[in-house]
Design goal:
alpha+beta, three-stranded antiparallel β-sheet, 7 helices
Length: 244
């Protein structure tokens, strides 16, 4: 199967050609935003949300924020167990496939919210430490595998997008590969979980970034977990042994 590969920048240019939204100021106008630095920042976030929903086909959930450095959660619960890292209970989800205007209008109702992506629908997540994740990504790309996006969190985690169902299959897959009795810094996120997406920050600790941006042809069909898991497990084990 042949895919046309394009970065989020190319995806954005395609969207701009279709809609005329050539910059964040234009997007702000679509949603009724006023000029200003803060409005432009919010407009840029809405552009990201529109891309995730309309081009990547991911639902987007408004999330809570935490004070810089980790602190009180914007949800208002003083005893919040996950400050700045959970959906806002009162905010409506933006469905996959929403248009630019729909996404901009919806996000304008929740200014300052974090951009969260629900896991277990279009993708699951394999979560590993950053260093082995970077090493594994280089090896997987050299192998020519069709990879999906990879997130990098300020907590030092690399999050690989894989096909839905990976979380349920992880124990069986590890067993078949001989890693079932090995302590690995590797876990899988599935239904009910969320990941924070750029340009939002995670729990007030810093921004989430793309280690590998979404590419046309890979977001709709992320790879099966079994295609990545052997390499990820091996490098996680190797790095753990090296620093033990």
């Amino acid at each position: 199967m042949v895919f046309t590969i394009g970065s989020m920048r190319e995806i954005r240019e395609t969207r701009q050609q279709r809609t005329g939204a050539r910059n964040p100021v234009r997007l702000a106008a679509l949603s009724g935003a006023r000029p200003g630095v803060r409005r432009k920042t919010h407009a840029a976030v809405r552009l990201n949300v529109a891309e995730y929903a309309g081009l990547c086909g991911w639902a987007v959930v408004p999330g809570a924020r935490a004070a810089r450095g980790g602190g009180a959660c914007s949800c208002g619960d003083a005893a919040c167990p996950r400050p700045g890292a959970h959906p806002l209970a009162f905010a409506a989800e933006i469905p996959a496939g929403a248009t630019l205007e729909e996404a901009a209008e919806a996000w304008a109702r929740v200014p300052g919210a974090a951009v969260l992506l629900p896991v277990g629908r279009s993708f699951d997540i394999i979560d590993v430490a950053e260093a082995p994740g970077r090493h594994a990504l280089v090896r997987l790309e050299r192998m020519g595998l069709g990879l999906g996006p990879v997130l990098l969190t300020p907590t030092g985690r690399a999050q690989f997008f894989v096909a839905p169902g990976a979380a349920a299959e992880l124990p069986r897959l590890l067993y078949r590969m001989g890693w079932d009795d090995t302590q690995l810094d590797l876990r899988c996120l599935g239904p009910g979980d969320h990941v924070t997406a750029p340009p939002s920050d995670l729990a007030g600790l810093g921004p989430v970034r793309w280690l590998r941006e979404p590419l046309l042809g890979s977001v709709a069909q992320p790879p099966e977990a079994r295609m990545l898991l052997g390499t990820l497990a091996y490098i996680c084990h190797r790095d753990r042994q090296a620093y033990a």
